[in-house]
Specification:
Layout (H helix, E strand, L loop, with lengths): L1 E9 L3 H19 L2 E6 L4 H7 L5 H9 L2 E6 L3 H4 L8 H11 L4 E7 L12 H4 L3 E7 L9 E3 L6 E3 L5 H16 L4 E6 L5 H14 L6 E6 H10 L6 E4 L1 H15 L6 E5 L4 E5 L16 H13 L3 H16 L15 H13 L9 H5 L7
Parallel strand pairs: 1-2, 1-3, 3-12, 5-10, 8-9, 8-10
Antiparallel strand pairs: 4-5, 4-11, 6-7, 11-12
Helix pairs in contact: 1-11, 1-13, 7-8, 9-10, 11-12, 12-13
The structure holds 3-isopropylmalic acid and manganese (II) ion (MN).
3-isopropylmalic acid binds next to helix 5.
EC number: 1.1.1.85
Organism: Flagellimonas maritima
Catalytic activity: (2R,3S)-3-isopropylmalate + NAD(+) = 4-methyl-2-oxopentanoate + CO2 + NADH
Length: 372
């Protein structure tokens, strides 16, 4: 298959982790005879620095022409600590989501058995967790009218949803539930918010066309509690933009590291793949950032194009790195493996998954170089 992939490394650890995902895609090309082409463009704080625009037009055009976008991370403390900043890196990502109409953000939360001890939560609570969050991505409070009065003392952000915006993602979520364990939970705040009551009405109606899927509802405050009390109860969670942002970070605690969670943002015409973690500026350039979320985002890209065997090869190589503890220090404080070495190890195992010849288990255990 030929695929044109736009690479948007962005800020902080974005470039380092994205580089590892590209290594893995190149390993897939080599192993399965595909031809992917990569073109890089600026986004975020680096784009503001170089082009005074967090989403330069050339970047947007490249993304529109590409079959898929692979995204690193966005954000810089310089802007986080300056509430007066008029141009912000995040605006680049938000505009990109809007322009490409990436209305559904899909975030799987699955426990890796080999990492179960990494989570701060008890093993019997989190074992066998396997759910997926469908977060609406181009509406709600993120994109509603923003106001601040002349004195700068009163501000508001409007949370607005239309039936159309709700129904297009609801259909995707119901279809996903049909292919999984037939359960869909709508997370909202319908006891307080009018927009949430519209979500309930629209989703309930759509549910009639998916009789095999059991639909239930949870208020977001209760959902926040249930996700860490009893995560196994969830199969597909459907929710609006901001609730999805918050509960997906919460979901990352289950797996023990936010450096593991991948996501796909899809619309009718475009698709973008990115780790859910942010730019982690403290780790920038230190070769300690976990590349797995970015690599698993590349696996989601492959799946999106029906390359299931290829995606599986990537996931299996990731599993191997976890089992052999060829991981970054967030997963094993004693590990001496850097971002690049973990990426090399995973890419190598995609090319030849049976090839254990050059691997020295003893060295792996000591956190020393193996094949790398
Ligand atoms: C995410 C991020 C973004 C969001 C930020 C960087 C704008 O937190 O993708 O979850 O809030 O959507
Ligand atoms: Mn977030």
């Amino acid at each position: 298959m030929n695929l044109k992939i736009a690479l948007l490394p962005g800020d902080g650890i974005g470039p380092e982790v994205l580089e590892q995902a590209v290594k893995c895609l190149q390993a897939v090309e080599e192993t399965f005879n595909h031809n992917f082409t990569y073109k890089e463009a600026l986004v975020g704080a680096i784009a503001i620095e170089k082009k005074r625009n967090p989403l330069p037009n050339t970047t947007l055009e490249l993304c529109k022409e590409a079959d898929a976008v692979l995204f690193g991370a966005i954000g810089d403390p310089k802007y986080d600590n300056d509430p007066e900043a008029k141009i912000r890196p995040e605006q680049g990502l938000l505009r990109l989501r809007k322009e490409l109409e990436l209305f559904a953000n899909i975030r799987p939360v699955k426990i890796f058995p080999s990492l179960i001890h990494n989570s701060p939560l008890k093993k019997d609570i989190i074992s066998k967790t396997d759910f997926i969050i469908y977060r609406e991505l181009t509406g709600g409070i993120y994109f509603g009218e923003k106001k601040i009065n002349a004195e700068g003392t009163v501000a508001s952000d409007l949370c607005e949803y239309s039936e159309k915006e709700i129904s297009r993602i609801a259909h995707l979520a119901f279809k996903a539930a049909k292919n999984r364990r037939n359960k869909l939970t709508l997370v909202d705040k319908a006891n307080v918010l009018e927009s949430s009551r519209l979500w309930r009405k629209v989703v309930t109606k759509i549910g009639e066309s998916y009789p095999e899927v059991v639909l239930d509802f949870l208020f977001v405050d209760n959902a926040a509690m249930q996700i860490i009390l009893n995560p196994r109860q969830f199969d597909v969670i459907l929710t609006e933009n901001m609730f999805g942002d918050i509960i997906s970070d919460e979901g990352s605690v289950i797996g023990g590291s936010i450096g593991l969670l991948a996501s796909a943002s899809v619309g009718d015409e475009n698709a973008l793949f990115e780790p859910i973690h942010g730019s982690y500026p403290q780790a920038k350039g230190k070769d300690i950032a976990n590349p797995i979320a970015s690599i698993l985002s590349a696996a989601m890209l492959l799946e999106h194009f029906g390359l299931f065997e290829e995606a599986m090869a990537v996931r299996e190589a990731v599993d191997k790195s976890l089992e052999k503890s060829v991981v970054t220090p967030d997963l094993n404080a004693k590990s001496q493996y850097g971002t690049g070495q973990v990426g090399d190890f995973i890419a190598h195992n995609i090319v030849d998954s049976e090839d254990d010849i050059n691997m020295n288990d003893e060295n792996i255990g000591l956190g020393k170089s193996t094949i790398i």
